[in-house]
């Protein structure tokens, strides 16, 4: 029996490290993103989750790959868009695009994967510190990450009795392209971001990958919102 991790956005950042971590543990890994995952032996499915209509092709590949090997499945909703915006001037087009990737895609993928969720399988949502608080200038991201917690809690309830578990893992400042796009790529920007953590450093994406693997193997975490942020200094 083959175990499968299906990870959105494993072409870089946290998703790429999660793909590497699951592979080292012997899981088969499928990446769903626009660019391929650089980790060897990962099955890449090139999909733009912002453009509706991808479900038929993903469903077909899932059937071809998972249909033959009903081991555990871990679906990791990791891909996300982050944009600087403002709750009082959001454009519909921009908000729809963010919600399409950050919320609609996870919900549609859940439906596609549901039939393959054997005992011990899991659905992991990658939230954010901003799943439970807001900062200025990130309204669409904050809104979508709060919604992800609601989707995870609903997932927990709607999977009752199936022995499939779900967790929302909420990273803090993690050293990836998304973080650099958000706070700036200069050394000064990185240093001032690191200084906002109680440990005085950024989180390595590998650390979040470890938490994801732990959650995939730990059903008692079912329904939990798990913050993995090194402790942020509140100002
Ligand atoms: N880094 C942080 O500080 C931080 C903090 C809190 C939470 N998080 C969360 O952690 C997760 C991973 O973040 P990251 O920092 O690793 O981000 P990242 O480096 O920007 O990677 C984002 C991934 O999402 C994929 N993606 C984006 N748009 C997509 C689309 N339209 N269709 C398909 N895939 C798409 C990208 O793949 P392609 O470009 O190849 O499509 C990429 O692999 C996200 O959910 C993020 O919100 C990150």
Please describe the structure with a list of short key phrases separated by commas or semicolons.
235 residues, alpha/beta, Rossmann fold, seven-stranded parallel sheet, 7 helices, 7 strands, globular, binds NADP nicotinamide-adenine-dinucleotide phosphate
The class by helix and strand makeup works out as alpha/beta
Low-confidence stretches: none
What order do the SSEs take from the amino end to the carboxyl end, as H and E?
A: EHEEHEHEHEHHHE
Find the CATH topology.
Rossmann fold
Radius of gyration: 17 Å
CATH superfamily: NAD(P)-binding Rossmann-like Domain
CATH class: Alpha Beta
Protein name: Oxidoreductase
GO molecular function: oxidoreductase activity
Family: Belongs to the short-chain dehydrogenases/reductases (SDR) family.
Keywords: Oxidoreductase
Descriptive account of the structure:
Helix 2 (55-66) packs parallel to helix 3 (92-113). The chain has helices spanning 13-24, 55-66, 92-113, 139-158, 177-183, 187-194, 205-216, and strands spanning 4-8, 28-33, 42-46, 73-77, 122-126, 165-171, 224-228. It has seven helices and seven strands; from the N terminus they run E-H-E-E-H-E-H-E-H-E-H-H-H-E. A seven-stranded parallel sheet has the order 3-2-1-4-5-6-7, sandwiched between helices. The chain has one domain (4-228): Rossmann fold (3-Layer(aba) Sandwich), CATH 3.40.50. The mean pLDDT is 96. With 235 residues, the chain is of the alpha/beta class. It is globular, with a radius of gyration of 17 Å. NADP nicotinamide-adenine-dinucleotide phosphate is lined by residues 8-9, 11-15, 33-35, 47-50, 78-81, 101, 126, 128, 171, 173-174, 176-179. Residues 8-9, 11-15, 33-35, 47-50, 78-81, 101, 126, 128, 171, 173-174, 176-179 line the site of NADP nicotinamide-adenine-dinucleotide phosphate.
